[in-house]
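Let us practice reading a record.
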Amino acid sequence: MATHFRPVLSGAQPTLLGSLLLAVATVGTWLAWLGWNTGYQIDPETGAVSGPYAVWQVAGSVLTLAVIAAAGGWWLSPWLVAPVMAVAFTVPWAVQAASTDGSGLWAVGATLVLTGTAAGSGVVSLGTHLLRRRLTGS
């Protein structure tokens, strides 16, 4: 007697669940690395203003997003990973930026964050997706 494995999730459910997990992980990355820091630093000698993020925060955020994009590309379509991650990262970034910027330049920054996140997550997830196809033959 042959038994057949029937997955618990079928059809669109894995894609929906995967997209939700991807979005939660992406927003969590923003919260963990960037969401808590809103202050600017002023160099007392030069008067130069920097911030609100330190280089190590941005680097940690990018590396974390790369890991998430790679995992997403392994299990999901890169055509899904890139837009989900781009929107999930840009929305909280833009909300925080808009609340602290009186000049309106936050919209330019949000466009750059959206474009960069989409491009980066798209390349990483596509590379991982192609690697998986090559390794598994599917």
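A brief commentary: Residues 9 and 136 are 21 Å apart (CA to CA).
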